[in-house]
Write a structure and sequence with these properties.
Elements lengths: L1 H38 L8 E7 L5 H13 L4 E7 L14
Parallel strand pairs: 1-2
């Protein structure tokens, strides 16, 4: 009876050791891919920003400069809101270039 108990506990310890060792090996691979994904995130993981245009006071050059700066800093996209008098804003309307 004691021999059976010893064999069962030995098998359990061996299985636990194998599982822990396999987990440690898998974690090493996972960590490197996690680090790579953090350093170079895919386009689907890049943050979006809210971009407020005030009553149409924008220019093509300004839009281009803003988009280039967003791309350089890793921004994945933007939600654009044109705020004006209809939203209770006191900004005079401007011509959109």
């Amino acid at each position: 009876m004691k021999l059976m108990k010893y064999i069962k506990s030995t098998i359990i310890y061996q299985l636990l050791f194998v599982l822990l060792f396999a987990g440690a090996c898998a974690t090493e691979t996972h960590d490197s891919s996690l680090t790579e994904g953090f350093n170079n995130p895919p386009a689907t993981a890049r943050p979006f920003v809210w971009w407020h245009w005030m009553s149409g006071n924008i220019t093509r050059d300004g839009i281009t400069a803003d988009l280039e700066a967003m791309a350089e800093s890793g921004i994945g996209g933007a939600w654009i809101f044109n705020l004006g008098e209809s939203h209770g804003c006191e900004v005079p309307p401007g011509p959109i270039d």
